[in-house]
Task: inverse folding
């Protein structure tokens, strides 16, 4: 979720109106008509001052949550906090709205074990937790998944000229880790900071990769929580990335803005590049894509089967093993790509993880050498 | 890596020994001929096998879907480009085969002259027209050349959705084919009994070969200069290339449908190839038409009710089409289109095309992956939407409206163009009769927006459009039609 577009150049391209230009006085804020307008909203082109924009942003998130009945009163909400702009804004907005919604918040941060990146991000999360006075829980891959940090996974899947598919592993394992962390703190709902740009990239990516199952599942505002999994939602889903950055700017939020070390390898990069081009040609492209994604109609055969429970860990699963267990199985057996790809041959072969595997993970606190 | 489900083979030990470059390869199908073209990911075909493969694909698509009944009149939409020329050629060849394998419908060709919209000079248009007529006369089907300016003369009924004819069941198709064959047999027996009789039998339900004197749409009546002027002003008033292309497509479709209805054609065939459809699918996604992908890119498109649009070339990639046309000398005419020589970032269509073709270089299965995903789309509202009576249809594209009610969670985020249209300040209307002339047809349909009505006619039009068309409308200079004094 950490975007690569937070470089200085991007900040300069934000639609902030110039501070003082004697030739052209800045317009009045269209809402309060008192303050000088500080920006023009990318979506509607209205000129607003900072305070009114933040108020409008919060009102829209509130509308999304209320109209979609996402977070009922009394919910204990685990916020997936990565230290990046999206989860920072999400946590801040939910804190502002918490009294009105009647919810209580807990921060859950996931430590994937990516050296040189995650430690700095976690420092930012700790600062935020201290400032907001919200309880913070950190769950680490190394603890949950038998010592498999992302760096270890990357080493295990490297080689043979093929891509490392790090993001495949990380995404699945992170969702599992988030679920575990949420249970630890006794949460009833999980929220993540996905914004409209993320949803648009996802639908583009799923079409380009031919992932009909994900297309059928996706769209909509989150999952209601089947089979014992906690309900998840994305309150920022209809806010475009630019507006999230603007909100963070006007509220002076402190967040961590570097991209993950493995991000350049991800296929999502292509979708992101395409999205930026589309946005330049037509500013409403992001919302148009979200609209399209919500209304895709796929054949019943393309949808994934009704979920059951994983035979190993009991979590939600479409097959005998949930994806996380399947991936870990592959890693532990020294065949990391076992669960990636069609058919997943060999998955159902009997065999507990053998000791003494050459690819076995190192000690959890080993620092990877790059 | 990109394709989900892509099979990663076991490590290198199981890889087949690499093919020696430079050594003589044989055609993968017949194992004898010298290959001339490589299809898909490394299948080399010789000339004859390629021809058989190509023709087989065309017939298989038609046969699999069983939508075209024997003796039906089918209009072929020919733009002069390679894909539609190839389609016309396939139909021509298919009709001239031996009786068992012969195609059994009655074709006609329509060609739309879009020169005015693309800004061509009258001389260039005349030249292109002459080339086209040459080819049309060689092909020999009844042909209709229609200038895009005639869209101004379309009656408002063109935007009304006709009642949908019920789709024939399997049994109905088989019964139709059987009765047709019997008919043929009877006609053949009445003749001399050898091959000329088949030709005679064909002529019983065929067309006169030269259509010129009987063709009411004869292009000897060129569009008037005023109409050309009006059309080019309409297109100039559109701000973005994306909206221009969408407008052109909408006008072209309506014109073709009108020609089909006037002359009794019940099917229209368009030459969209696999590559073009994959690009079209991604473009429609980006334009907000996710609800209608199955209609936009599927084999058949029945949203217009009485006339069904069919895409028989949808399994042929552009590469195959190009090679076929080159190897077997299929004639085609190049006419500049709206986006010829436009920079890559000029419109969503261009962007998507460039992106897909670039990605195809890197991941050779991109186009086929997107195409296969498009086959899994169905023509139905998404689960959870009311499965009640069919709702209102979009004025321009004839699809069921996909706008949520105002109190749904997503209505706020994804439907702001509606708010935007209402907050734009009205601009003074310059004299632009073309906009109103073009839109006047539309306004005439939307329940009679009388000139004397004080209500904003533009808002009335907009609320009858689907999401994608609303976003396009923003780019059209429609605020000029907001003046109630403009005649509807």
Result:
């Amino acid at each position: 979720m950490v975007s690569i577009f937070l470089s200085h150049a991007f900040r300069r391209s934000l639609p902030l109106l110039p501070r003082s230009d004697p030739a052209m006085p800045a317009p009045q804020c269209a809402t309060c008509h008192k303050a000088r307008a500080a920006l023009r909203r990318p979506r509607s082109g209205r000129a607003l001052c900072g305070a009114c924009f933040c108020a409008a942003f919060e009102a829209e998130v509130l509308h999304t949550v209320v109209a979609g009945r996402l977070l009922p009163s009394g919910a204990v909400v685990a916020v997936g906090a990565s230290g990046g702009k999206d989860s920072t804004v999400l946590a801040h907005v939910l804190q502002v709205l918490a009294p009105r919604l009647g919810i209580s918040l807990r921060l859950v941060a996931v430590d994937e074990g990516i050296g040189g990146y995650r430690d700095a991000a976690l420092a930012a999360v700790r600062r935020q937790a201290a400032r907001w006075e919200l309880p913070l829980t950190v769950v680490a891959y190394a603890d949950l998944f038998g010592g498999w940090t992302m760096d270890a996974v990357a080493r295990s899947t490297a080689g043979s000229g093929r891509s490392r598919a790090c993001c495949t592993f990380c995404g699945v394992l992170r969702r599992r880790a988030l679920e575990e962390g949420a249970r630890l703190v006794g949460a009833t709902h999980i929220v993540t900071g996905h914004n409209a740009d993320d949803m648009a990239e996802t639908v583009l990516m799923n079409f380009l990769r031919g992932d009909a199952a994900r297309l059928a599942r996706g769209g909509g505002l989150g999952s209601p929580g089947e089979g014992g999994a906690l309900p998840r939602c994305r309150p920022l889903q209809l806010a475009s990335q630019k507006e999230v950055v603007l909100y963070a700017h006007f509220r002076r939020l402190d967040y961590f803005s570097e991209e993950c070390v493995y991000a350049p390898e991800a296929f999502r990069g292509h979708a992101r590049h395409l999205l930026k081009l589309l946005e330049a040609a037509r500013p409403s492209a992001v919302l148009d894509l979200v609209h399209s994604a919500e209304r895709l109609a796929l054949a019943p055969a393309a949808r994934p089967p009704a979920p059951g429970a994983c035979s190993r860990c009991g979590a939600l699963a479409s097959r005998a093993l949930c994806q996380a267990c399947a991936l870990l199985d592959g890693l532990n057996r020294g065949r990391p790509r076992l669960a990636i790809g069609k058919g997943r041959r060999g998955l159902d072969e009997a065999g507990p993880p053998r000791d003494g595997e050459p690819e076995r993970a190192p000690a959890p606190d080993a620092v990877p050498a790059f | 890596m990109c394709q989900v489900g892509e099979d990663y083979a076991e490590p290198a030990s199981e890889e087949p020994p690499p093919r020696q470059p430079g050594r003589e390869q044989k055609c993968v199908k017949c194992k004898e001929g010298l290959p001339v073209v490589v299809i898909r990911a490394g299948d080399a075909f010789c000339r004859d096998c390629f021809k058989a493969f190509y023709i087989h694909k065309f017939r298989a698509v038609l046969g699999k879907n069983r939508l075209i009944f024997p003796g039906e009149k089918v209009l072929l939409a020919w733009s002069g480009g390679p894909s539609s020329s190839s389609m016309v050629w396939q139909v021509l060849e298919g009709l001239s085969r031996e009786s068992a394998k012969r195609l059994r419908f009655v074709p006609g060709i329509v060609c739309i002259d879009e020169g005015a919209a693309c800004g061509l000079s009258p001389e260039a248009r005349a030249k292109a027209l002459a080339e086209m007529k040459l080819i049309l006369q060689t092909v020999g089907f009844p042909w209709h050349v229609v200038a895009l300016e005639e869209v101004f003369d379309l009656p408002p009924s063109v935007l009304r959705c006709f009642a949908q004819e019920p789709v024939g069941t399997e049994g109905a198709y088989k019964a139709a084919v059987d009765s047709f064959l019997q008919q043929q047999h009877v006609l053949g027996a009445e003749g001399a009994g050898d091959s000329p009789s088949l030709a005679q039998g064909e002529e019983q339900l065929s067309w006169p070969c030269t259509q010129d004197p009987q063709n009411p749409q004869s292009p000897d009546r060129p569009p008037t200069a005023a109409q050309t002027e009006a059309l080019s002003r309409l297109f100039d008033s559109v701000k973005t290339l994306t909206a221009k292309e969408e407008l052109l497509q909408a006008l072209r479709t309506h014109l073709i449908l009108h020609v089909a209805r006037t002359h009794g054609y019940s099917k229209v065939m368009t030459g969209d190839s696999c590559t073009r459809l994959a690009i079209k699918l991604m473009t429609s996604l980006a334009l907000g038409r996710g609800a209608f992908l199955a209609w936009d890119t599927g084999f058949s498109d029945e949203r217009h009710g009485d006339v069904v649009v069919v895409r028989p070339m949808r399994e042929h990639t552009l590469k195959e089409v190009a090679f076929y046309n080159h190897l077997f000398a299929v004639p085609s005419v190049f006419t500049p289109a709206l986006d010829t020589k436009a920079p890559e970032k000029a419109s969503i269509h261009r962007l998507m095309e460039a992106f897909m073709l670039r990605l195809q270089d890197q991941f050779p299965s991109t186009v086929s992956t997107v195409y296969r995903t498009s086959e899994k789309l169905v023509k139905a509202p998404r689960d959870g939407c009311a499965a009640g009576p069919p709702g209102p249809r979009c004025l321009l594209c004839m699809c069921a409206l996909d706008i949520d009610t105002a109190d749904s969670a997503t209505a706020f985020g994804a439907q702001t163009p509606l708010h935007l249209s209402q907050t734009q300040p009205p601009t003074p209307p310059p004299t632009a009769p073309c906009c109103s002339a073009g839109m006047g047809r539309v306004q005439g349909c939307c329940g009679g927006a009388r000139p004397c009505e004080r209500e904003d006619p533009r808002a009335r039009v907009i609320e009858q459009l689907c999401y994608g068309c609303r976003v396009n409308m923003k780019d059209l200079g429609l605020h000029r039609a907001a003046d109630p004094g403009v005649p509807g």
The domain at 61-164+219-375 of chain B is CATH 3.40.50.620 (Rossmann fold). Strands of chain B lie at 35-39, 43-46, 73-77, 106-113, 143-147, 267-270, 300-301, 308-310. The mean pLDDT of chain B is 74. Chain B touches chain A through 62 residues (CB under 8 Å).
